[in-house]
Design goal:
The chain is mainly alpha-helical and 216 residues long. It contains 9 helices and 3 strands; from the N terminus they run ααβαβαααβααα.
């Protein structure tokens, strides 16, 4: 029973690094051009000047946003423990699955809709819509999204055996001031007398006058 648990514990570093990498690249790819009108088509229709412009391309910003959410989940997963940590891992699965869904839907199912939108933007009155090619960023994002889903799902399964951050890294509680008590008690007498002088000045008294100076 010990060996499988140690194996799961040793997977912490590789799985987290792979999750950060795949989610990060998916987020980057999601903010790039996903579909574009081929250069030859633009040239044949006298639209060469539109090459590389937004009017002849399509992007899937939702994929990039979900990729950033997945990336944030991996960061939170490093500093949480217990049930919260597993919930964050589940959120990473959902976010990466969302990236994959957006890419599949936009790049395959709704590619013709994107082509019609581009035709409207270009002012094309012909019935035929321009072809839309999937860019290299689309394939990079798709591959990273698939890997990110697999890695996040593995995290959900393995996270109970992973090492957790110690409680010494938690935010200080109300009990912290009590630890300062010995320091106050051990203050040098000369330092305490100096503090008394400053306190007297704050109260409006003249600490240079002794008790005899106040008698009539």
């Amino acid at each position: 029973m010990t060996k499988p648990r140690m194996t799961a514990r040793a997977s912490f570093g590789p799985v987290v690094l792979l999750g950060l990498a795949t989610s990060g690249f998916a987020a980057i790819a999601g903010h790039q051009t996903m579909l574009e009108v081929p250069q030859d088509y633009l040239k044949d229709n006298g639209l060469t000047a539109l090459s590389g412009q937004d009017l002849a391309t399509a992007e899937f910003p939702l994929a990039g946003a979900l990729g950033l959410v997945a990336l944030a989940c991996w960061g939170v997963l490093l500093v949480t423990r217990g049930v919260v940590r597993r919930v964050v891992a589940v959120l990473a699965v959902l976010a990466t699955a969302g990236v994959l869904g957006v890419l599949v839907l936009g790049g395959f199912v709704q590619r013709d809709d994107a082509a019609r939108d581009v035709a409207d933007q270009l002012g094309m009155t012909s019935v035929a819509t321009p072809p839309m090619d999937r860019t290299a960023w689309f394939w990079v994002g798709l591959a990273c999204a698939v890997l990110a889903v697999v890695v996040a799902a593995a995290a959900v399964r393995l996270v109970p055996a992973w090492p957790e951050m110690g409680t010494r890294y938690d935010a200080p509680t109300g009990a912290a001031p009590a630890a300062d008590a010995p320091t106050t008690a051990s203050t040098d007498p000369s330092e305490r007398s100096n503090l008394d002088l400053w306190k007297a000045l704050d109260d409006g008294a003249d600490p240079t006058q002794g008790p005899a100076d106040h008698t009539d």
